[in-house]
Amino acid sequence: MALNPVGWSLSSRLASSFVGIAVLLASGELALRVAGFVHPRGVDRKVVWSPDRDAQMRTGEGLYRFDPLCLWSPRPGAEIPGAGGERINPDGFRGPQLSIERTPGVLRIAALGGQATLGVGVRWEDTYCARLVQILGEMGVRCEVLCAGAEEHSVIQGLERWRHVVRVWQPQLVICTYVGGPDHMQAPQGRVDARRIALMRERPRVEREGGLRDASRLLHLASYLRDMASGVYWEERDWAFQERRIAATAGELDWPGQRRVPYDEYVEALTVLMSEIQSEKSTVILLSIPRSPGSPDLPAADVYQKAAADAANRVGSGLLDGRNALVRSVMEEEVPKEDMFQGDGALSDCSHLAIAQALAEEIVAMGKARR
């Protein structure tokens, strides 16, 4: 039977069309990938920490993970940069893994705070947490430490981390370093920390969510064009421009932007945190971590630190100023000033040791005062 030339011609044209469309789509996909074009989903454009840090957390492979309790926290098993292969322990803390049950005769200390508490850039044995255990042991005080530090955590995050993570370990002494450093800084996209936590709890972030939408750059483009047409893109673009315009002056007192933790909320949250720790029959030490000499003057940070000292005095805690420990190390032990900080402004092992010595003396003195 002879083939129908009309039917064959139509089939050929359809096949050619499909091939042409496929080639066009593949070429477009390749071109967008080569150009590095991405347009994340709307939920991923809502910044949790920062665009770069969020991108790292979405991979599920970095030091931190998304955490609906406190926005971000160290990822169990993650390798710690600059620590010789050391990893975050299975409970999500740095240092040796502890049992939930306290050991009789051993003082359990928890450390809550930011990058200094985590010990960024130094080995575990050189952190002030590990040094404190060593020095107190030499002074006849057996102790162990739960290092719950996380970079750039505010007091709002610290309060949630205490309530939902650290409190269950029943520490007898808690060291806090929330004296306003990250708190006074600019809130990403104008959303304060408390608001971002609430949003994440409504819709927790998922690492490696994937799917066709995230895999296809053509769908990224379609989403981008849709957001442009609806005006969403232009609103986000204008907001980002305004943020960049005022970011450099966030440390000033008279600043038009939104801080991560507004002053009144900061004072209230810090007071609540210290009071809750005391209500658990734990002692709290508020520790001020000094800024490196090359840091710019930040009047707003100084105001927050003054508020921290006042709040500590109201709850009967007091503030241990880390600057005094560093000055004493330089003056009495003749440690060169330039050795007190790393190149990025983080505390060096010398500073960690000086702070641990000051903490140990404070803890021993507090123990003697109770006798």
The number of distinct helices, counting runs of at least 4 residues, comes to 14
From N to C, what is the helix and strand string?
Answer: HHHEEEHHEHEHHHHHEHEHH
Strand order of the largest sheet: 4-3-5-6-7
Q: Output mean pLDDT.
A: 89
What general outline do the C-alpha atoms trace? Answer: elongated
Low-confidence segments, ≥5 residues, pLDDT <50? none
How many DSSP E strands? 7
Please report the distance between the alpha carbons of the first and last residues.
110 Å
Largest sheet: 5 strands, parallel
Radius of gyration: 26 Å
Strand content: 5-15%
Q: What structural class is derived from the secondary structure elements?
A: alpha/beta
Which descriptors apply to this entry?
371 residues, 14 helices, 7 strands, alpha/beta, five-stranded parallel beta sheet, two-stranded antiparallel ribbon
In short:
The protein is α/β, with parallel strands linked by helices and 371 residues long. The protein contains 14 helices and 7 strands. Strand 6, helix 12 (299-314) and strand 7 (319-321) form a beta-alpha-beta unit.
Task: Walk me through the structure.
With 371 residues, the chain is of the alpha/beta class. Helix content is 49%, strand content 9%. The strands form 2 sheets. It has a 5-stranded parallel beta sheet, sandwiched between helices. The protein has a two-stranded antiparallel sheet with strand order 1-2. Helix 12 links the parallel strand 6 and strand 7. It is elongated. It starts with a helix and ends with a helix.
Write the layout of secondary structure elements.
Elements: H1 5-34, H2 42-45, H3 51-59, E1 64-67, E2 71-74, E3 107-112, H4 115-118, H5 128-138, E4 143-147, H6 155-166, E5 173-176, H7 193-202, H8 212-215, H9 217-230, H10 232-247, H11 263-279, E6 283-288, H12 299-314, E7 319-321, H13 322-332, H14 349-370
Parallel strand pairs: 3-4, 3-5, 5-6, 6-7
Antiparallel strand pairs: 1-2
Helix pairs in contact: 5-14, 6-11, 11-12, 13-14
